[in-house]
Each structure stands twice: as structure tokens, then as C-alpha cells.
Amino acid sequence: MSVSRDDFSIAFRSALLQRGGAQKFSVLSLIFLALLIFFLDVYGVKFTKPVRGFINDVVYRITYLASTPTRIFPQVGDNISSFLNVKKENERLKAEIEKYKSLELNVEFLTDENKNLQNILETEYFNKNLSNILLAKVLVDKNSPFLKSVIINKGTRAGVLKGMPVTKDNYLVGRVVETNYLSSRVLLLNDLNSRIPVTLDQGAQAILSGSGSKNPILEYLPEDYEIISDINVFASGKDGIFTPGTPIGKTTNEGLIELFVDPNQLSFVTVNLNIQNKGKL
Amino acid sequence: MARISILNKFYNAGPLILLYYLCISEVDTNLEKIFEIFTLNFQIILIYFWILKRPEIMANGHIFLAGLINDVVMGFPLGISSLSYLIMIFVGTYVRAKSVNTTIASDWFTFFIAMIFSNLLFFSLLNNFSELSFTLSKIGYNMFFTLFTFPIFWLLFNIYQMTFVGNRDA
């Protein structure tokens, strides 16, 4: 009995304290070091923030370089296939241009009508100043099962602050949750931690919550509200962060929201530098 | 002779290079795009296998550093992945010290125990000390697929070990 207890304690001690050969550090010392770093990162905001920011900037750049092969090979394949389909693509685009020409006239008419109606109501779109828009490249898009986010190549140096909304082709994709000097992390709409006040086509208000999967869900809808498919969802702007009317997605038959921008396919995004969320994540 | 020695060094460094590459690059073993619930923690399989079989080619310091890099890339609080990996090393080293001969079944079973401890620590720290929220189903799927793909990677790593590294099992 005592022999087996001795065996246990020897093996236990050896697993924790063993050094020598390739192992220059014992597991126990590294556990203490990891715990120290962890608590400094969680609690020591003032001290660790610049250090963490610097580490983030360096690692994101290296990640971008290290991921180059995985980014280039699929791109080469896409380029070859698009080159082969160039004639068909040209015909399709010509047809689309014709379609959009007629739609443009419609939009012009609706814009004028909208302006006139706003004048009559004496209200004005409170955030028309969209000149302060920053184009950013997605550096890292590592698909994590627990955190849906991307890293962009613009940070505090370019004026990016925590809370700023991020869009792609005028469609909302998320908001900035972490800023470094040269890079920032954008929390995507489908992340479990994301909550956005939205409005639906028919005027109903709700909260768009990330579900951790590709499609977010709607919460706090009016009582007895029945979700049908193909209803457009826009940012309501009630939080003062997102521009009201920014398109987000449309409803599906299952009551989920299909985002207009695929969160897994982001390469360039824009950051609206005018607005900043002062609240917490 | 010198060329063989360089090649051997390169083969020995293979698992460590793979670990660093997985932590720092966009390449991930999270195949949600193909099959929504399929996620696995490949890093802990890699660490556990090589700590059991050839601990000298997986230095603790390197694993610790890889964990820190993983935290930066994933957006987790610094040190949390390192802690999780160090728990895997600890259980692996303990099992290695206690056992004379290992089989795929014994490695699989002890991997399960190591993974339970490692993930328990990882998610309890994440839950209590960060603002990140996650669902239990995600954790469950991740653990399930990590556990059930372990034998496949065990066989692949074993082939690599036999072919390039050489067997020096305890």
C-alpha cells in the first residue's frame, strides 16, 4: 500500500518538477507563469494593455504572413476559373447593368421623395456625415468555435476606437471590440456575445443576437409576432452606435437571420469613424 | 552524414513546427464551414501524443509559447491556452512515468482524462474571468470530436514516428 502511494507521489512530483534534456522549464513553474500572465492580462489593465497591444500587432502580422499560402492557393484556383468563364460573365454583367440602369431611376425618384418627406416631417437623418469612413483589410480570419471575430489592419493610429461599427458594401458586419496601435479585432454579428437593436420591414423592433453559428437570431420581438421568411432586417440605431437603416440581413423560414454579408468571406471592410460605443461589450 | 543529421533534426522538429503553425496561422481544424458542429482541438491531440511518445521533441517552453500565441490569435485572455496545454503535459508525463507499455486504447483513455481536466480549467477560467460567453453544446461537440478523432491522429503520428523519428517508447 505504502509502495503504491510512494509510486504515485514520485510520478506526480516528477511530472510537475522534472527538468533536464530538452525540458528547460518544469511544468509547475510554467503553470505559475501562465497563471501570472493570465491574471495580469485580466486585471492589470493599465500595465498590460500597451504590452498586449504590441504583442497583438506583432503576432497578427506574423499570422497574416504565415497564412499567405492558404490564402493564395484558393485565390489562384478562383482566378483560373473566372478567366475561363470571362465571356459568360461579361454577358451576365451586361444584362445586370441594364437592370440596374432602370433601377437607378427608381432610386433617384425615391431619394427625392424621401428628402421631401423628411422636410415635411422636419426630421433629418441624424448621421449623414459618412465622409469619415476607413477602409480596412482583414488580416486574420481564424475560424474559432467559441469566438467569431476577424482582425483588421487598422488600429488606433488610424483613429479606430472600441465600439465603432464595421460594414462591408454598406451592410453591417460587426463592431470593433479590441484596438491595438496597428490592428483591431472586430466582433461579428453571429458571435454569441453580439447584441444589436434592429428594426424589421414592418416596423417591429427586436434585438439581433449572435447564436455562435452562421445565422443570428431575433430576440425580444413583439408578442404574437410571427416571423415569416424574406423580411429585411436593418439596424435601428437606437443604441446610437449603428447608423439607422443599415441593412443587416433577411429572415429565413426557420426564424433565423441570413446575413447579407457572409461572415466567413470577409476580405475588406469599412469602419465608420464617426460613431463610437461608449458602453461595454 | 551531416545531411542525415540535419534531416533528422528537421523530422524531430516536425510536430513542434506543426504546433506553432496551427497556433499562428489561419489554418484551423475547425470545419464548421463544412459540417456545422464539427470542431476539434487538434493542438491538444498533437501535444498529448508527442508528450507520451517522445517528450524530448516537444519542449515545455515551446508548448507554453505556442499557447500564448494561440491566445493572441484567438482573442482569449493571455495564458489560458498555455495552462490548458500544460495540464495535458502534466497528465501525459504522469502517465508516461507510471506506465511501462502503452497501447492505443490506454492512450485514448488517458487522453480523455487529460482532456477533461484541461478543458475544465480552460472553460471555467474563461467563464469566470472573461466576458466571453459560449454554449455548453459547442464545448460538448468540441470535446466529442476531439476524443473520437484521437485514434486516427494517433495512427498517423505513429506512422510519422516510425518512419521519420524512430521509436524510443517507455
Protein architecture, described:
Chain A is α+β, with helices and mostly antiparallel strands and 281 residues long. Chain A is built from 5 helices and 12 strands. Helix content of chain A is 38%, strand content 22%. Chain A is elongated and about 85 Å long. Chain A starts with a helix and ends in a 9-residue tail after the last strand. The model of chain A has no long low-confidence stretch (mean pLDDT 81). Chain B is mainly α and 170 residues long. Chain B has one domain (2-165). Helices cover 74% and strands 0% of the residues of chain B. Chain B contains 6 helices and no strands. Chain B has helices at 2-24, 42-53, 60-74, 80-98, 104-129, 136-165. In chain B, helix 1 packs parallel to helix 3, helix 2 (42-53) runs parallel beside helix 4 (80-98) and helix 4 (80-98) packs antiparallel against helix 5. Chain B is globular, with a radius of gyration of 16 Å. The two termini of chain B are 28 Å apart. The chains are: A alpha+beta (281), B mainly alpha (170). At the A-B interface, helix 1, helix 2 and helix 3 of A face helix 3, helix 4, helix 5 and helix 6 of B.
Summarize it.
The complex is a heterodimer of chains A (281) and B (170). By secondary structure, chain A is α+β, with helices and mostly antiparallel strands.
User: Which two chains share the most extensive interface?
Assistant: A-B, 58 and 52 residues
Helix content of chain B: over 70%
Shape of chain B: globular
Query: Helical region count of chain B?
Result: 6
- How many structural domains in the coordinates of chain B? 1
Topology, number of strands of chain A: 12
Termini separation of chain A comes to 55 Å
How much helix, percentage-wise, in residues of chain A?
Answer: 25-40%
- Order of H and E elements of chain A: HHHHHEEEEEEEEEEEE
- Helix and strand content put the structural class of chain B at mainly alpha
In terms of DSSP E residues, the strand content of chain B is under 5%
Q: How would you state the average pLDDT of chain A, rounded? A: 81
